[in-house]
Amino acid sequence: MPALDQAGMFRLRAFESDWVLPLVDPTDELDSLLLAEARLWIDIGCSLGYFAGAATRLTDDVDVPERFASRLKPARHEWSDLPPALFQQRLVEAQSDLTRDRQEYLRLLLFADTDDWERALESLDRVTGALRPGTQLRREVVDDIAWALEGAESDLDARHQSLPASWRSVSAPVLDEARAGQLASRRRALAEQFEHYAQAAAPTSTEAQKPAADPSEPLATLGSLIEQIELVGPYPGTVTLPAPADPPRPRPRLRPFADLAAKVRAAARRGTGWRDLPLAPSFPRPPRSGGWDQIETLKRLADLRDQGILTEKEFEQAKRDALNRP
Amino acid sequence: MAVTHAVRHLAERYPAGWVLFVSHSTPHRLVVFVHGFKGRAVTTWLRFPAGAEDRAWWRESDMLYVGYDSTRDSIAGTATRLRRELPRFFPDVPRELVEIDGLRAREANPPYQQLYLVGHSLGGVIVRRAACDAAQEWRDDLTTDPHAARPSLLDAKLRLFSPASAGFRAAGWLGVAQASGFWRAANLCLRRSPAFTDLQPDSKFLADTRRRTEELCQQDPDRFRALRAALLWANPDDVVLSERYDSDFVDDFVDGTSHTSVCKPTSEYLAPWTFVETGRST
Question: Which of A78, A303, B124, B246 has the most crowded Cβ, counting Cβ within 10 A?
Answer without folding.
Answer: B124
